[in-house]
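Input (structure):
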């Protein structure tokens, strides 16, 4: 369980309350609230870059700010990346103090913006920006656990989070999956899970899902291009349901990516790669938990995943050294 400064959590909750978001809220509500603070139009646009753009970023134009984020991830993860960047912009003009000096100045944030996304690709995590990253992670996590992905309904201003009955063994497998990804990625995983805060159960579970999706974005360029096709064929032969097929296919993609990342083999740029199958990106918080539990189990135990992984190790000729 993550534990750190209660003061940071309280500060972030005050910032969120100050924006006056509805409960639950949609991404458009947050973008409009931040645009009102900055007095500039703010829009979010997906970037369909086949796993090559591994982080979100902001493009500042004369009349607006544009948040670009990877299209090749789940809707819930995409909303997390949008929210992260929106808060990064909001803190340039502190909504509590209207202060644009010191650490919240445009000059100071220029360095942070280049590495501001949740995956942190594009630069080193320094002491100077670690505190800002930590605050942004807590702001984004607390915000998103009030979003329509997670909240079932508001009741007298008290949030009613989706009640998810998850067996402890499944939660343990999620933790194992997350730890495996971080271990294999090594130094590349440094920016994942930077912020530790006084999170409750739902927030901790949400963080685990986001950190797994962050790691999958990092690994997208290493997926064997034949993995999905082979896994789908074998699953259909076995008579798998659509839900099981989606979990096994993602696990097979992930397995090949982990092996190839360790071997230093990156898939050629002209070949589309992605860990997450295209048809399985629209999920609620509850269904995402169930799906990733199934992915973790398949990665550990499913014979189809082992068969696909072995095939792709034997036939790596669609790839080039990283």
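Output (sequence):
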């Amino acid at each position: 369980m993550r534990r750190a400064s209660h003061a940071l959590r309280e500060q972030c909750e005050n910032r969120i309350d100050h924006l006056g978001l509805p409960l639950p809220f949609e991404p458009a509500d947050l973008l409009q609230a931040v645009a009102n603070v900055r007095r500039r139009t703010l829009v979010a646009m997906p970037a369909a870059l086949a796993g090559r753009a591994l982080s979100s970023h902001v493009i500042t134009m004369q009349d607006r700010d544009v948040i670009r984020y990877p299209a090749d991830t789940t809707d819930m993860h995409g909303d997390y990346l949008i929210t992260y960047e929106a808060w990064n912009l909001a803190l340039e003009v502190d909504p509590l103090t209207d202060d644009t000096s010191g650490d919240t100045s445009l000059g100071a944030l220029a360095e942070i913006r280049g590495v501001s996304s949740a995956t942190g690709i594009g630069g080193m995590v320094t002491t100077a920006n670690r505190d800002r990253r930590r605050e942004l992670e807590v702001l984004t996590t607390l915000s998103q656990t009030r979003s329509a992905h997670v909240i079932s309904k508001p009741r007298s201003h008290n949030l009613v989070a989706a009640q998810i009955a998850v067996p402890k063994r499944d939660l343990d497998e999620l933790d194992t999956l997350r730890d495996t990804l971080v271990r294999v990625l090594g130094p590349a995983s440094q920016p994942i899970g930077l912020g530790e805060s006084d999170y409750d159960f739902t927030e901790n579970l949400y963080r685990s899902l986001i950190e797994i999706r962050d790691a999958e974005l990092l690994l997208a360029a290493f997926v064997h291009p034949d993995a999905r096709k082979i896994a789908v064929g074998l699953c259909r032969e076995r008579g798998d349901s659509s839900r099981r097929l989606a979990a096994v296919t993602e696990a097979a993609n992930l397995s090949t990516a982990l092996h190839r990342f360790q071997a230093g083999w990156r898939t050629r740029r002209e070949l589309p790669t992605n860990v997450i199958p295209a048809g399985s990106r629209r999920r609620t918080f509850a269904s995402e938990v169930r799906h990733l539990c199934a992915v973790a189990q398949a990665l550990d135990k499913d014979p189809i995943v082992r068969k696909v992984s072995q095939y792709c190790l034997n036939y790596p000729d669609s790839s080039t050294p990283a």
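Notes: The beta strands are 41-47, 57-60, 64-70, 151-155, 158-161, 265-267, 319-321. The first strand starts at residue 41 and ends at 47.
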